[in-house]
Each structure stands twice: as C-alpha cells, then as structure tokens.
Amino acid sequence: MGSQIAKVIESKNQKYQMGQLVFCQIGWRSHSIINPNNLTERDSMPTFYMLPDFGSLSPSLGLGVLGMPGNTALFGFLNICDPKPGETVVISGAAGAVGCHVGQIAKNLGCYVIGFAGTDEKVKWLKDVLKFDATYNYKTKDVTVALQEAAPHGVDCYFDNVGGELSSAVIYRMKNRGRISVCGSISSYNSNPKELPKVPLLQPAIIFKQLKIEGFIVSRWGEKWMDGIQQNLNLIKEGKLIHPEHITAGFENLPEAFMGMLRGDNIGKALVKV
Ligand SMILES: NC(=O)c1ccc[n+]([C@@H]2O[C@H](COP(=O)([O-])OP(=O)(O)OC[C@H]3O[C@@H](n4cnc5c(N)ncnc54)[C@H](OP(=O)(O)O)[C@@H]3O)[C@@H](O)[C@H]2O)c1
Predict the structure, then answer these.
(1) Does 93 contact ligand 1 (Cβ within 6 A)?
(2) Cβ of 115 less than 6 Å from ligand 1
(3) Is 92 helix (H, G, I), strand (E, B) or coil?
(4) Which of 66, 220, 250, 269 has the fewest CB atoms in 10 Å of its CB?
(5) Dist CA 186 CA 264 (whole Å)
(6) Domains of the chain, with CATH numbers?
(7) Ligand 1 in contact with 244 (CB < 6 A)?
(8) Atom of ligand 1 nearest to the CA of 218
(9) Predicted confidence (pLDDT) per residue in 198-239, tens digit
C-alpha cells in the first residue's frame, strides 16, 4: 500500500479545489481519479484527507512525521510502553522513520535511550544529532553485550521495529514488568515463509520477568489521527522533533527506493518525489 501527497488538478467535488494538496492511500500511481466518498477506511484510519496547514514546512512531511509513521511512533510508543522519565528505553530500527521519532519522544520525556541501527553512519547520527544516550550497529556488535554495557540494570521499555534475534536478545535484558511495543518485524519481511528464521524461546523471559508484550496496527488510533498530526506538528515547532527524509527522484525509481528502504539505505522517512 503506497500513500502519497497529491495535488488536485481537476475537481467536480466542491470540497476539493484545484491546487489543493491531499493525502491519499491509493498505491503507486502518477495520476488518479478518486471519489473520496467511495474509498474504504481501515478501522477508522482516514485514507483520504486535505493536508492540514503545515505552515512553511514541506508537505512531504504528511507522509512521514506528520502522517502515518508519526502517529505510529506517538501512539504506539506512549500508549503501549507507557514510558516514565528516567526509564531505559531500547529502540530497534532506530534510525528509520518510526524509530528516530520514538527515540526523540523518549528523550523529550527524560528517558535513557538506546538505539540499534544497521550502519556506523546511522549510529553516529543517532548519538550526535538526536542525542541518544547509547547507540550500536547491530550488524557488528553483539546485542546482549551492548545491553550489558548500556543497560546493566535492564530495560524498562522496548519499541520493536524489527523482530527476530535482535529482539529476542533485548527481551532477555528486560526488567521485571517491562513493556514491549511490537510495531514491526522487518527482519523477516523478506524471508521465505517456509524457512522462517528460528529465534530463542521467549516464554521464560516473558513469564519470569512478567513482561507485557503488545502488537498494534496504527489504524487503532484512527479516531485521533488529526490530533496526532497536530501533536507532532507542535513538537516540530517547539524544536523537539527532527524529521529527516531520504528522497529518491522519479516515479520510475519507486521499486528501487522501496528495496533500498528494506536494505537500510534510509535515515528517516523513505520517500519518492514524482
Ligand atoms: N504497526 C504499525 O501500524 C506500523 C506502522 C508503520 C510502520 N510499521 C513497521 O515499523 C517498522 C519501521 O517502519 P519505518 O517506516 O520506520 O521503516 P524504516 O525504519 O524507515 O525503514 C526500514 C529500516 O529497517 C531496517 N532493517 C531492514 N532489515 C532489517 C533487519 N533484518 N534487521 C533489523 N533492521 C532491519 C533498515 O535499517 P538498518 O540500517 O537499521 O538495518 C531500514 O532502514 C517496519 O517494520 C514497519 O513495517 C508498523
């Protein structure tokens, strides 16, 4: 499902005027004819709306920090992890659109934030620019050893974008009554379904540490969609939320951009400018 920010170039619907920018979840298309009344919603998540006024900010943010990934970070972290100031928060996929946003919310709250990402450049950026407290390249550093160093007393909250072995290692370093928000499982998206990677048994950690693990789909907070966008917009205006974009030019490069995102080419939100 591709989402896009599009410009209305012709309209027979008085609500939508020529030149207006709209968000729409209609796949990878250069042009579309849409009757907004006929679009189906997932739960109550809006699939078509006029872009709110972002002031001088780029409308492209409506696909990232001021759109679905932004609401995923805001609602999925605060509602499920319920983080408190001073707590230790771990984020996987930390340099991606959702992960870097979660980390900044956690820092703003006064948490101790540990991020895992897949290149030294990302790890440096998380530390130097976003001021994460500890950051590691999960491809070159053993995750258990990293957490023994950075979180010797354990982890209170884990925001999981990737799943797999990295997540199993984090789950075994959780504190009693730790909270885990399961947002994504990208480590297995490209796996052969008949040969899924094996990961360590998790039940002992879940039981004896009395963990709360909850998966979510962001459409769950569809009723609060615009409120989430406004909250994130306020954070940007207050200088509390950096929102990098990784932009590929050209409609014809969509597949390459998509595969690049899965490979880890992006810092922040991966976008295609058509
Ligand atoms: N539950 C929901 O409603 C919801 C909503 C939005 C997104 N999501 C999920 O949230 C996750 C993050 O989304 P996003 O839009 O912010 O994507 P993203 O993090 O911007 O991009 C994906 C990143 O995943 C990392 N990655 C790829 N393969 C990996 C592997 N085997 N192990 C660890 N990391 C790997 C790559 O970075 P590295 O260089 O660090 O490897 C890549 O840059 C995704 O899993 C997505 O499906 C869920």
Answers:
(1) yes
(2) no
(3) strand
(4) 250
(5) 10
(6) 1-51 (no CATH), 56-274 (3.40.50.720)
(7) no
(8) 3
(9) 889 999 999 999 999 999 999 999 999 999 999 999 999 999
